[in-house]
């Protein structure tokens, strides 16, 4: 359930502003001393200062198998099929996760237009600032038609020129949903004879079903996140601040070779699903929530774990067990052909029947969201969503109970739909006493 993405400007992401900026590069001296409490944060230096559980982590970067050029070509062919079926003559995709998905080009979104024009047949045409031509060519693996525009020129006219060259200046132009309004308006104004529509039937139509290669990358990222969380849990000490714990997570990820981070909330602040910016200190017997992930070739994990240092009280144990039962109920309900909203209903019924209802009273958010290159993608496991599950879809499965002013518990693992049911990419958290089994 994490918030805005620091790794790209896609739909949603997981590094909490203010708390996590730069933690992956936090010096080992600061992280190591954090384990002894905030007062010692500048005392220790070097690798030896890190907790043993963090030092034991090994790089998994060598296990990352990137998406192949052939698979990206298959994606473009699928996009063109969906364009045909949807009556779309041309599509514009700007910087962001969909550009990565179809072409492999990783490009930051700015006021300068860079993007791809795709029509129903043929290779894509790339539009980019002329001074960025070489950097664009470095990332292109197929379809080397690059059109550059100079700083005193109108890039929208160039996009319109490309579309007209493809013979579709009077048809339907689909705009990828994350293209900023000022840019979509500029392109629309340059193509007044075209009808501009949302490209989601194509982008979501391709991206919501994951290939075996995508599932493998997501599984690796999620497995890595779980190992990082366990290593950090074993290093926790009373008196640590939420920032020092976040820093420890960043350092742990750095040792695994995958970029990642997590938001951390402690004690009463766990009663808010996205926590608080207030300073927090770890107290023995109170819950801590980790929520975040890492990336493998751009594909993200998203795991939440609720843990305790020392002995949790009976109330925390009770709530933890209810949330785990709710997560199991959602997993049991998942199979192809089932409405997405049914999974939310299954988890919510468990929580309400246990006395933490009705509706959103204590379980205050939807059950889950789609996930892939963006942490939050199509579709959503939420009440009323009648879209049907299909094999290859991936979602967070993250029920929670939040008791205002006291504590909260949330458990999150990534669910993937199979031909005859569903599974989770990581083992569940079995108990509050042994959260990693």
TrEMBL record:
Domain Peptidase M24: 217-419
Signal peptide: 1-36
Taxonomic superkingdom: Bacteria
Domain Creatinase N-terminal: 75-209
Pfam families: Creatinase_N, Peptidase_M24
Alphabetically ordered keywords of this record: Signal
InterPro entries: Creatin/AminoP/Spt16_N, Creatinase/aminopeptidase-like, Creatinase_N, Pept_M24, Peptidase_M24B, TAT_signal
Protein's name in the database: Xaa-Pro peptidase family protein
Lineage: Bacteria, Pseudomonadati, Pseudomonadota, Gammaproteobacteria, Lysobacterales
């Amino acid at each position: 359930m994490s918030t805005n993405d620091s790794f790209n400007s896609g739909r949603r992401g997981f590094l909490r502003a203010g708390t996590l900026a730069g933690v992956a590069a936090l010096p080992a001296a600061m992280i190591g001393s954090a384990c002894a409490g905030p007062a010692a944060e500048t005392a220790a230096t070097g690798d030896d200062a890190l907790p043993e559980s963090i030092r034991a982590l090994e790089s998994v970067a060598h296990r990352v198998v990137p998406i192949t050029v052939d698979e990206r070509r298959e994606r473009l062919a699928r996009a063109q099929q969906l364009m045909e079926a949807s009556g779309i003559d041309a599509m514009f995709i700007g910087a962001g996760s969909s550009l990565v998905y179809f072409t492999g080009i990783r490009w930051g979104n700015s006021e300068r237009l860079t993007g791809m024009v795709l029509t129903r047949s043929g290779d894509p045409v790339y539009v980019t600032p002329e001074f960025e031509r070489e950097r664009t060519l470095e990332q292109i693996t197929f379809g080397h038609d690059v059109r550059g525009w100079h700083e005193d020129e109108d890039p929208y006219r160039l996009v319109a020129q490309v579309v007209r060259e493809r013979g579709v200046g009077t048809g339907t132009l689909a705009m990828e949903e994350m293209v900023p309004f000022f840019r979509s308006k500029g392109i629309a104004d340059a193509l007044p004879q075209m009808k501009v529509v949302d490209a989601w039937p194509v982008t979501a139509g391709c991206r919501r079903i994951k290939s075996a290669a995508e599932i493998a990358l997501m599984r690796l990222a999620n497995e890595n996140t779980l190992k990082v969380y366990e290593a950090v849990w074993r290093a926790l000490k009373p008196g640590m601040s939420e920032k020092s714990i976040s820093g420890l997570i960043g350092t742990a990820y750095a040792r695994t070779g995958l970029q990642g981070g997590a938001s951390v909330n402690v004690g009463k602040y766990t009663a808010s699903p996205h926590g608080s910016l207030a300073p927090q200190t770890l107290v023995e017997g109170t819950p801590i929530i980790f929520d975040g992930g890492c990336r493998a070739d751009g594909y993200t994990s998203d795991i939440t774990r609720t843990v305790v240092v020392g002995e949790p009280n009976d109330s925390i144990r009770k709530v933890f067990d209810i949330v785990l039962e709710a997560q199991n109920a959602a997993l049991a309900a998942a199979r192809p052909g089932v409405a997405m909203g049914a999974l939310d209903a299954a988890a919510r019924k468990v929580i309400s029947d246990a006395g933490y209802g009705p509706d959103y009273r204590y379980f205050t958010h939807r059950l889950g969201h789609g996930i892939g290159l963006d942490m939050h993608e199509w579709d959503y496991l939420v009440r009323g969503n009648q879209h049907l599950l299909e094999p290859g879809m991936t979602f967070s499965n993250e029920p929670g109970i939040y008791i205002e002013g006291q504590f909260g518990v949330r458990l999150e693992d990534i669910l993937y739909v199979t031909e005859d049911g569903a599974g989770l990419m990581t083992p569940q958290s079995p108990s509050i006493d042994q959260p990693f089994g």
